[in-house]
Amino acid sequence: MPRVNSLPGVPRWAALAAHAVPWVVLPSSLWRVALVLRLPVSDYGPGFGESLYVLALSAVSEGLALLTLGLVRPWGEVVPRWIPLIGGRPVRPLAAVVPAALGAVALAVIWAYAFRNVGGGLDSGTGPGGMGSPAQDAFLVLCYAPLLLWAPLLMAVTVAYYHRRTVRPSAGEQPPGLPQGRQERLRARYR
C-alpha cells in the first residue's frame, strides 16, 4: 500500500482520496498546456489571450485540487504561521467544510453538464467542442474523464473532515483526530 501523510485519526481511505484529487485534475491540465504549446492534441490553436486564460485555468484547477489536501493535513486544522493576520489560529470546521462542500456541488454540476453529450460527437467530426479528429477527440475525453471523480472524492473527504472535527466522543473515549497534546504541539509548530 502506498504511504500517505495525514493527521492521526484521518481514515486511510480519506487520505488516499485527498491525495488522489490533484492526480485526477492533472491530465486535463496537461492537455490544456499541450493545446497552448500547439502539440497535436487538437486542430484548434488558441490565440495569445486564450492561451493565457487556458494556462491560468490549469494553474487554478491544480491549486484548488491541492487545497483538498488541507482536509487531511495539519494546515487544515491550524492556519500556517506564515499567513498574515490569521497564522497560528485554529481553523473552524465550517470554514473548511462549507467551501469544500459548495465546491464539490459546483464541480458535480459543471462536469455533469460538460459531459452530457460527449459520446454523441466522437466520430461525427464535430466531437466534444469540435476540437479535431476522432482520435484527438477521444484523447480529449480520456484526459477530461478523470475530472468526473473530482466532485465525489472532494465530497467524501469533506464529510470525513467534518465528522472528524465535529463528532463528540462518548464519555471516556479519545476524540477522533489528534491524540491528546498533539493539537497544542501542532499549534506551537506553526507559531
TrEMBL record:
Region (Disordered): 169-191
Sequence intervals crossing the membrane: 12-31, 51-72, 93-114, 138-162
Protein known as: Uncharacterized protein
Biased composition regions of type Basic and acidic residues, renumbered to the chain: 182-191
Classification lineage: Bacteria, Bacillati, Actinomycetota, Actinomycetes, Kitasatosporales
Protein keywords: Membrane, Transmembrane, Transmembrane helix
